[in-house]
Structures are given as C-alpha cells and as structure tokens.
Amino acid sequence: xxxxxxxxxxxxxxxxxxxxxxxxxxxxxxxxxxxxxxxxxxxxxxxxxxxxxxxxxxxxxxxxxxxxxxxxxxxxxxxxxxxxxxxxxxxxxxxxxxxxxxxxxxxxxxxxxxxxxxxxxxxxxxxxxxxxxxxxxxxxxxxxxxxxxxxxxxxxxxxxxxxxxxxxxxxxxxxxxxxxxxxxxxxxxxxxxxxxxxxxxxxxxxxxxxxxxxxxxxxxxxxxxxxxxxxxxxxxxxxxxxxxxxxxxxxxxxxxxxxxxxxxxxxxxxxxxxxxxxxxxxxx
Length: 284
Ligand code: SAM
Fold this sequence. Notes:
The protein is of the alpha/beta class. It folds into 2 domains: 7-208, Vaccinia Virus protein VP39 (Rossmann fold, 3-Layer(aba) Sandwich), CATH 3.40.50; 219-283, Orthogonal Bundle (Helicase, Ruva Protein, domain 3), CATH 1.10.8. The chain has helices spanning 7-16, 35-43, 60-68, 82-88, 107-114, 131-140, 154-161, 171-179, 219-229, 237-245, 249-258, 272-283, and strands at residues 29-30, 50-54, 71-76, 95-99, 120-125, 147-153, 180-188, 193-194, 201-208. The strands form 2 sheets. It has a 7-stranded mixed β-sheet with strand order 4-3-2-5-6-9-7, with helices on both faces. Strands 1-8 form a two-stranded antiparallel ribbon. Helix 2 (35-43) crosses helix 3 (60-68), helix 8 (171-179) runs antiparallel to helix 9 (219-229) and helix 11 (249-258) packs across helix 12. It binds S-adenosylmethionine. The site of S-adenosylmethionine has 22 residues, from strand 1, helix 3 and strand 3.
C-alpha cells in the first residue's frame, strides 16, 4: 500500500474514483507524513483503546489509529468515499465505517455497541465548518469517553483551549472548561493539507472531567446565560445578558452587582464560578 500522504497517490486515487474534494464538507486531507503519528501521540491512545474518528476522508489518520488502537470506528458523511476507503483500508480488520452525518448519530448507542468494556477516545481532523457543533455534541451528550483530540483551525483551537476569565475566552471556552480540561498541543502549517487551507491548523486535547467544573442546578439555564453574555461582542456582560435573555437591564445589573461584580464587567473576565454566582443572583 503506497503512503496515503503521497500527493501523487492521492491525486491518482481521486482520479480513479472520479472523486473531487468537496469544500462544502471541509475536505482538506493530511499530506504531511509526520502529522498522523503526532496526532495519535497527542491523543494518548494505545492497544487498549476504542477510537471514534469523525471524518476519515481517505483514511490517512484512520490507518495510523488502527495501527495503534484496539478498534477504530469512523463516521463519514460523504457517500462518495466508501469505495476509496475500501481500497486504502484494505486488510485493516479493526476498522469500521459508519456512513452518516456525525450530528445525527446516536453516539451513546454507537459507543455502547462498538466499544464494550474499552476505554474510548475521540481523535479526528475535524471538518472546520462545523467544529463547534461537533465539539458541543461530543461534550454535551455526556458520552463515556476519556478524551477528545482534534485538529481544528488555529483560531478555533485558541477558543477551545482558552481558560474562562481570560481575554481569549468565549462561550465555547466556557462549555469546554465545564466538561473538560483542555490543552493546545501543536500547530500545523497550511501546506500539511491537500488542498492547503488558507489558515494555520492546531491540535487541541480535551480530557473529560469526572464531574463538571462547577455544580449548577439548572444546566440549560446556565449555558443560556453564558451564551447570552458572549452573544454580543464588545458589549458589557449586563447589556448582552439583558438583550440575549430578554430581561430588563436593571434587573441584570442588580444581579451582577449582587453577585459581587462591577456592572460594567465584560464576559471574558468572568470564570465558570462567576457565571454560576450571577445565575443564582438572577434566580433570586
Ligand atoms: N481525516 C482525514 C484527513 O485528516 O486527511 C479527512 C479530514 S477532513 C478535514 C474532514 C472530513 O470530515 C472529510 O472526510 C469530510 O467529508 C468529513 N465530514 C464533513 N462533515 C461531516 C459530518 N457532518 N459528519 C461526518 N463527517 C463529516
């Protein structure tokens, strides 16, 4: 089997199956041979692990995962890819393809069925156009997984890895931090992919916490508050929460002050505990 990172092989494979890479599906395949081992190293998986991959493409990362994990299940939305994967994954017997949109898959059921009794990790070079919905689903569904190691746009990686209460934080930083600890692992230049994207990419590893970082009674209300606070960049948290949740500005300002903060505080200055205090004050 030729190297799947060999650009002339990739081109010939695509031509053989009359396959044109789809921008719409965020298809930028890895062609830097150093990257798949580096991503799998970052994921920490070994022969004990079941790995869930999202978007195998032609299987570059998939093959490395299959070499090093007990079993790999890859979810792919593009119905044109199975014949290419049949060729590139030939002879790899610990790999299974699920041809579906990851956002529509019952992941809990899939994991229970495919990885009974195994520690499970997610490892993927994600389609960049739906990074946030995928990460939110993987975290919010409370799946029995140990970690997520994902390649995303560098900018998105910065948000996934940012600690709440720091300048780079956003609603997704808060959500990640609620469910997991996260770490920026390394970056990859555009030339590592075919076709080369316009932006730098980066790998972030998120390790799922045994229990969320803060205890809140109404989780849905908590995340609605966090999303509202970050909903309008450059507004104070009070203004953004008032307009996002449709509440009177005075009441929100009073709650923020009752929680012990300046009424003009910005959302990026608030930690997960701070948001919990504001939620409690709003509920009173
Ligand atoms: N893993 C391959 C690699 O690293 O070379 C391909 C990564 S490419 C950035 C993203 C992959 O995700 C593509 O194969 C694309 O078709 C697939 N994809 C896009 N949207 C998807 C969705 N909603 N569900 C599952 N896979 C999806």
